Amino acid sequence: MDAAFTAEQDEIRRTLRELLTKRSGPDEVKAAVRTAAGYDRELWAQLSEQLGLPGLALPDAYGGVGCGLAELAVACEETGRALLPSPLLATAGLAAPLITALGTPAQRDELLPRIANGALTCALAVPGGSLAPALALSGDNASGEWAGGGRAGGVQAKPGDAGTWLLYGEAGQVLDGHSAGLLLVAAHTGGFARSRTLLFLVRGDAAGLSRTRQTALDETRPQARIELRDCAAPRLGAGAGGGGLFYTTYASRRNTCCRLSGV
Question: How many domains does the chain have?
Answer without folding.
Answer: 2
